[in-house]
Amino acid sequence: MPSILNNVTAIAASRQLGVTQMGLKQAIERLTTGKRVNRASDDAAGMVAGTGFTAQAKTASAQVQAYQNQYFAAQASDGYLEEATNQAYRLAELEGSGNSTSAEYTAVLALANSAAALGGASSSATNSSTALSAINSQRSTLAATMATAQSNANIKGIEGENATSQADTIMGADIGREMVNLTKYQILMQAGTSALTNANSSSQTVLGLFR
Q1: What confidence score (pLDDT) does residue 198 get?
Q2: Whose CA is closest to 43, among 174, 187, 176, 184?
Q3: What integer pLDDT is reported at residue 151 of this predicted model?
Q4: Alpha-carbon distances, residue 55 vs 41, 44, 48, 167 (angstroms)
Q5: Measured in Å, how far apart are the chain's first and last C-alpha atoms?
Q6: How remote is the C-alpha of 198 from its chain's centroid?
């Protein structure tokens, strides 16, 4: 029997429209951001875990860059030592030809020591033998530095990839599912609006009793 106190049907339809509107808004947001979790209300625990993995990925990425910088710095030093090695070879030639007291020998020795110093090696060599000894010792150290830096960069790169994958699994939206939800909520909005209109029209039936 029609009631003039409350239109319960209209109230229920209006409430359900609100629920549908929220679902539609969420589907649109997920499709436009690509993220399933856009705020804590979407999944508080997921947000905690997802942001944690994202932070790990960013840390790993910065560490990769730092290790790569170490590698290239060592590589640059090794380049100086390569030049120092070439000068040491020239010293050996001058020594072999009996010109170890020549002006050229003095100049080449200075060049060898200068290049060695730029590469981080001892710059107090007095002949080809001491020059090569200092150079080779430093190049061995640099080789270890480069190998370690490259390995660490690879390890941190893997850690970053794994953390990013875990973050995406937790935070990323299922685009196919959200497209289905979008269509569903659009249909429900249309149907719900029509139902609310019909529910509100019942008041006209009550008014008709007074005619």
Answers
A1: 81
A2: 174
A3: 98
A4: 20, 17, 11, 9
A5: 18
A6: 53
CA 24 to CA 41: how far, in whole Å?
A: 15
- State yes or no: pLDDT of 125 exceeds 80: yes
Residue 31 near residue 178, CB atoms below 8 Å: yes
Long-range Cβ contact pairs of 152-157 (< 8 A, separation 24 or more): 152/63, 152/67, 153/63, 153/64, 153/67, 153/68, 153/71, 156/60, 156/61, 156/63, 156/64, 156/67, 157/60, 157/64
Buried b (16+ CB within 10 A) or exposed e, 76-91: ebbebbebbbebbebb
Enter the tokens of residue 50: 């997802």
Question: Angle at CA 16, nearest 5°, toward 11 and 22?
Answer: 130
The size of the chain, in residues, is 211
Cα–Cα distance for residue pair 117/22, rounded to 1 Å: 69
